[in-house]
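User: I'm curious whether this sequence folds into something compact or stays loose and floppy. Could you predict its structure so I can see for myself?
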Amino acid sequence: MIRFLLRAVIFLGSAAIGLLAAVWLLPEVSITVAGFIGTVVLFALAQSILAPFITKVAERNAPAFLGGIGLVSTFVSLVVVNLFGAMSISGWQSWVFATLIVWLVTAVATLVLPLIFLRNRAKEAKH
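Assistant: Here's the prediction. I'll summarize afterward.
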């Protein structure tokens, strides 16, 4: 149960960092302060539901696209958040760059955040 919660926190944290990076780097991307947490949760839920679904569809119909599943699921999750969340993306270039930024930053954060949590837990265990 603790592992599940830790993974959920890491997933939500990486989504938050990725979305913030897109907002900071692209002027055409915005999230309201009041809707930030809801947007992060909606993005993380959409991403966790859509990635396996898109993977399954690609495996059956277009196996050559399997390498780009992360980008596709990030794009579709951004579309969902743009429609139902407190996020706004305007212009096709912003859509492309936001997808790349969020995908890359969330991937890196998903690798780095566990190291930070594990390092802190190791320090606590020593004391």
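Summary: The helical segments are 2-25, 36-61, 69-84, 92-126. The chain has a mean pLDDT of 88.
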